[in-house]
Amino acid sequence: MSIRRLPENLVNRIAAGEVVERPASALKELVENAIDSGARNIAVRLVSGGIDLIEVTDDGCGMSSADMALALERHATSKLPDEDIEMVSTLGFRGEALPSIASVSRMTLESRPSTSSGGSAEGWKRIVDHGLLAREGPASVPPGTRVRVENLFGNVPARRKFLRSPRAEYAAALDTMKRLAMARPDIGFTVEHDGRRTLAVQVGMSRPERVAALTNGELIDNSVGLDFEREGIKLGGIASLPTYNRGVADHQFLFVNGRPVKDRLLIGAVRGAYAEMLARDRHAVVALFLDLPPTEVDVNVHPAKTEVRFREPALIRGMIVSGLRHALDQSGFRSVQRPSADALAAWQQEPIRTAQGDIFAAPYTAYQGNYAARSPFPSLAEHRGDFTVQNEDLAPLMGRAAEAAEPVPESRRYPLGVARGQVANTYIVAEAEDGLVIVDQHAAHERLVLERMRAAMAAAGGSVPSQALLLPQVVELDEPACDRLETRAKELSAFGLELERFGPAAMLVRATPSMLGQGDAKGLVEDLADDLAAYDVALSLKERIDHVASTMACHGSVRAGRVLSVPEMNALLREMEVTPHSGQCNHGRPTWVKLALGDVEKLFGRK
């Protein structure tokens, strides 16, 4: 086959495959053009998630009729004053977006130059139907530009059938708008979807106010600011405290010279900065703004301009890690301080095992074998000898710290020993025959609740008993999160959680799993929404039982900071001894560690 030149319409359709992946991609290109035009207000209107209509209106500099014709040609741009592509200071510069989008949709371009730019008072309209000019002429429009994109991929059925549902496409478009709006607090943005306004931020907001308005208003009171500079590179933004986190990393926003990017280097740097402060399955909420000379970063890496390449990646990563850690250290949140390596070296961590049969000796062996077949709320009194606890339901544990009313049992009778006290209302200190045991009460009880939930589902044929709330609780979320929860409401009810839609951006909680007690329904629903966003919604929720059950167990367990009585502490230890996998919590961390008596003697110079 001889080499031939591709026709112009096919070239544009191939380019559209690189630039326009879905409605959110087209929206990103159009809004970036509006930002580069100097607009102060940008209004977006979507229908069916952008599949049927994308409309972007701005009050920027506008275009003349000649500029409009040239803008619809490939590789025509006003954003590169010369051929020095390394000095790019605008968002869009390739000159491919408009002709690529117009080749796979019906595009209506209306514009009128602003009087400040010296243009005429006449507006102009140009309509391109899937790459072919359909009509053009004068138009009565205010100064600025309005772009309408209808029937995206209408003439490319192979591409259109790969689009997801309107809800999913709208969620992607809304995320794109949040990132663009976050980068420019000096511009006002509004988004309207199917006739209803879903996002509105005003001009002149401060950067923390804009970030909080687009994520969660609570972020301002649970975050620290960043203002760091090194070798001509500036790092600013806002970062959440370790205690304010989410189940997925969808609230980590990264900007390079005002450009929203998704860069693995930056994401890894954020994870490194929060290392040892967050569980492996928890993620901080951050919005980082990196400003550096254009010669130090290459933005011409990807057609969609979502990736960048740094000249000195090690410098950038180190700056982000040190900047975040410095800000967190200055916040006064001392509980996240990393312990001394010398202190930890003296402790021997108990190995995590998949079964407890080889750790816990009789008389618990017989009980372990029948654990799955027994009730999820077993009576432990018959296995404790002379140690009895009246309240067997440990979720949640009740009562206040109290002195033991009965003689303390001998530690040698129990593998995890007997409780001697509580440190910082978080850690149970127990004395075993061969050493000192420290138990993380939240992590340990979280595993116990998870195993109870699994046993309850097995005993009840795949469902968990629920407890109706006296007053249903309203949980406010963003619309995509509510959509995800509403889609899976029937499957969530199998776990004992009954939800209903309560308006466009809220869910109504009517019942929670009974074994969780009076837990935090709001936090539970928010984390479940994050779980559904993190994992493929096309799969059955039952295939993700461990993730959902773990999330529920976490919210139903004893929290760090809860004061426990001595009987309650001993009850927790006894149930750990007969519960499978109790050596590790649901997140993979150990639930207890042991310091042997020999090591204690070494600490005091006795050996």
SSE order and pairing:
Blueprint: H1 8-19, H2 23-36, E1 41-47, E2 53-58, H3 65-71, H4 97-102, E3 106-112, E4 123-129, E5 132-139, E6 144-150, H5 157-160, H6 166-183, E7 188-193, E8 196-201, H7 207-214, E9 223-230, E10 233-240, E11 245-246, E12 252-256, E13 259-261, H8 264-273, E14 283-284, E15 286-291, E16 297-298, E17 309-310, H9 313-329, H10 341-345, H11 365-369, E18 418-423, E19 427-432, E20 435-440, H12 441-459, E21 466-476, H13 479-487, H14 489-493, E22 498-501, E23 506-513, H15 521-534, H16 545-556, H17 566-578, E24 592-596, H18 597-603
Helix pairs in contact: 2-6, 6-7, 8-9, 12-16, 12-17, 13-15, 15-16
Can you offer a commentary on this structure?
The protein contains 18 helices and 24 strands. With 607 residues, it is of the alpha+beta class. The chain folds into three domains: 8-201, Histidine kinase-like ATPase, C-terminal domain (Heat Shock Protein 90), CATH 3.30.565.10; 207-336, Ribosomal Protein S5, domain 2; 355-607, 2-Layer Sandwich (Ribosomal Protein S8, Chain: A, domain 1), CATH 3.30.1370. Helix 6 (166-183) runs antiparallel to helix 7. It is elongated, with a radius of gyration of 30 Å. Residues 332-341, 352-406 and 537-543 have low confidence and may be disordered.
